[in-house]
């Protein structure tokens, strides 16, 4: 396969690109290398990818409407995986325009590229935060997710709708994944596990929101990549049983579907911190704070559909996953 992976120097994009290269695929990686977080971390990820002969890098902003068409014209990818985005729920409260540029305009450019040079499959990232304050746990793709509570999640809801429109109008097979709290080696510095580890090793207090009462479906990055790779080889077909009078939000009469990618279990945030303390061999000084705007108390993925469609079987415990992150952090930063 010749696969275009956007956000290839990002956290999930790096892990996916490396997996694809190791299995023998050609990867065109696209990343703007912006400074939302430490660009040296992105550069280190990129250096590893560039060590593979099957990797080609394009440094470009996804929102660049003038230059993006040339990427598709030159590379003509058989598959496209869009992981580039302005991430972070909380940052969307500070810089909303950044999310529209990267997540909406950028994704439109991807869709237009697919329209001009149709791939066998478009896979794109959505988010578990699209469920908002949905009270039914676990979150199911067959339940309507129509009330996002941050601009970040609203921009991802827009992506889902945009991909469906292009699947309907132009027959572009598209699979969207709602990711649940991804963590692991090479993670982003703005993510909780990274921030907690950094603070604990520096003897600084960690800030725990929601008074420590939150629960999350923590999903190890390798389990996420397993789902993405499995999907690449399984583009969706129109659902022959789709009923416009009783529409299933997860499927369509077009070649489009939505799936959850999560561990499929809730973990207490405080247990997550306890595991981190055990792996670091240090206790955390905790500063409890109220819930932040845009946060939810609990998340949990219903992965039944993902298991059925992709034979998806996430298997990494938080004990194993956090341990691998700590090992990587200590080696990378020499602490």
Helix and strand layout, with pairings?
Blueprint: E1 2-6, H1 11-22, E2 26-31, H2 39-50, E3 55-59, H3 68-75, E4 79-82, H4 96-116, E5 121-127, H5 151-170, E6 174-179, E7 182-183, H6 192-201, E8 206-208, E9 215-216, E10 219-220, H7 221-232, E11 256-261, E12 267-268, H8 269-280, E13 286-288, H9 304-310, H10 318-333
Parallel strand pairs: 1-2, 1-4, 2-3, 4-5, 5-6, 6-11, 7-10, 8-13
Antiparallel strand pairs: 9-12
Helix pairs in contact: 1-2, 1-7, 3-4, 4-5, 6-8, 8-10
Stretches where pLDDT is under 50 for at least 5 consecutive residues are none
Number of strands: 13
Shape: globular
Mean pLDDT: 96
Question: What is the number of domains?
Answer: 1
What share of residues are in beta strands? Answer: 15-25%
| CATH superfamily descriptor | NAD(P)-binding Rossmann-like Domain
Distance between the termini: 39 Å
Percent of residues in helices = 25-40%
Radius of gyration: 19 Å
Short précis:
The protein is an alpha/beta fold and 335 residues long. The protein has helices at residues 11-22, 39-50, 68-75, 96-116, 151-170, 192-201, 221-232, 269-280, 304-310, 318-333; strands spanning 2-6, 26-31, 55-59, 79-82, 121-127, 174-179, 182-183, 206-208, 215-216, 219-220, 256-261, 267-268, 286-288. Helix 1 links the parallel strand 1 and strand 2.
């Amino acid at each position: 396969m010749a696969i275009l992976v956007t956000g290839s120097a990002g956290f999930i994009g790096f892990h996916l690109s490396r997996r694809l290269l190791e299995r023998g695929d050609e990867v065109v990686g696209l990343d703007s290398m912006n400074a939302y977080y430490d660009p040296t971390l992105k550069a280190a990820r990129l250096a590893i990818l560039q060590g593979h002969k099957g990797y080609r890098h394009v440094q470009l902003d996804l929102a660049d409407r003038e230059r993006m068409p040339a990427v598709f014209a030159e590379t003509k990818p058989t598959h496209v995986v869009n992981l580039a985005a302005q991430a972070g729920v909380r940052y969307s409260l500070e810089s909303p325009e950044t999310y529209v540029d990267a997540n909406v305009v950028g994704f439109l450019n991807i869709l237009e590229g697919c329209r001009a040079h149709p791939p066998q499959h478009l896979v794109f990232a959505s988010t578990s935060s699209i469920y908002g304050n949905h009270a039914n746990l676990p979150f199911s793709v067959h339940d309507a997710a129509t009330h996002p509570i941050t601009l970040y999640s609203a921009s991802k809801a827009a992506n889902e709708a945009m991909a469906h429109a292009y699947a309907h109008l132009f027959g572009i097979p598209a699979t969207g994944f709602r990711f649940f709290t991804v963590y692991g080696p090479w993670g982003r510095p703005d993510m909780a596990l990274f921030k907690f580890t950094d603070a604990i090793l520096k003897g600084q207090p960690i800030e725990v929101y929601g008074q420590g009462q939150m629960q999350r479906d923590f999903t190890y990055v390798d389990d996420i990549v397993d789902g993405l790779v499995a999907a690449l080889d399984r583009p969706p077909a129109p659902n022959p049983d789709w009923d416009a009078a009783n529409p299933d939000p997860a499927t369509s009469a077009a070649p489009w579907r939505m799936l959850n990618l999560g561990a499929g279990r809730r973990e207490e945030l405080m247990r997550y911190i306890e595991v981190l303390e055990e792996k670091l061999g240090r206790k955390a000084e905790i500063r409890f704070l109220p819930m932040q705007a845009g946060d939810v108390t609990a998340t949990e993925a219903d992965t039944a559909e993902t298991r059925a469609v992709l034979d998806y079987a996430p298997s990494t415990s938080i004990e194993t996953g956090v341990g691998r992150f700590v090992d990587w952090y200590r080696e990378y930063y020499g602490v």
